[in-house]
Amino acid sequence: MTTVFVFNGPNLNLLGVRKPEVYGRTVLPDVEALCREAATGHGLSLDFRQTNHEGVLVDWIHEAGAAVKRGDALGAVLNAAAYTHTSVALHDAIEGAELPTIEVHISNVHGRETFRHHSYVSPVAAGIVVGFGVDGYPLAIDGLVRKTRPLRSV
Ligand code: DQA
Description:
Radius of gyration: 14 Å
Number of strands: 5
Bound molecules: 1,3,4-trihydroxy-5-OXO-cyclohexanecarboxylic acid
């Protein structure tokens, strides 16, 4: 079965507890359940992960890119959290691994502090889902499927 990866960056293990007025009260295992439902609906298996470490995300991106090249995976949904705004390493990893990536943010980062307005991930993302709360994750999986298995040519 083809895999879809969902990678979560720093502090997202605190989802549901950290700033619920911004990120909501849904916890990460419930986000995983939402993603599993979306993946299963597309006949995909889900590989859902979270780390607080930038280099681990780089390693996972390389691993996912290799899986896509083997035909074992479709791509990845990535909420790089704060590393979005700081990490050239993530930008280079996505580009270098040629990993089809949908960038996700739970909150509308463009309505928040200016340091959240810039993303190193966006220029190398296939698509971006921002500000839909945790519903952005299944939306991103749908978007990745449409990008990589288009219903129609555009
Ligand atoms: C976030 C937005 C980032 O600015 C922030 O650092 C996060 C979460 C989001 O999902 O809204 O940790 O990526």
